[in-house]
Amino acid sequence: MLHFQSETYHYHRSKDVLRENGIDILIVFACLNIESEQHLGNYVREKLIEGPVVKIKSKASEGDPDLLSLPNKDVFYTLTQAEYNLLAETAHKDEKAFLLYKHVISN
Q: How many other C-beta atoms lie within 10 A of the C-beta of residue 98?
């Protein structure tokens, strides 16, 4: 039986400012994952492997200006394995850099 495995690497970030009890709350979330598919003849086994996750929640009035400058939306990027490995390391060493991946900060 012919079989092969493929892996796709992903980065996901979500940012929003929500109003809770009259206070604006900044929420920024980012994570990495690996989508693994193993093809075994007519059968496909899929698995999602979760990587690092970073979440920051604070009053918007006290929030980091760079994080506040992120657009209020979800973004998804497909990564190479090398990019994934670098971002996984970044998530542990510099959470802010991880959250700002591919975001251009304008002064």
A: 22
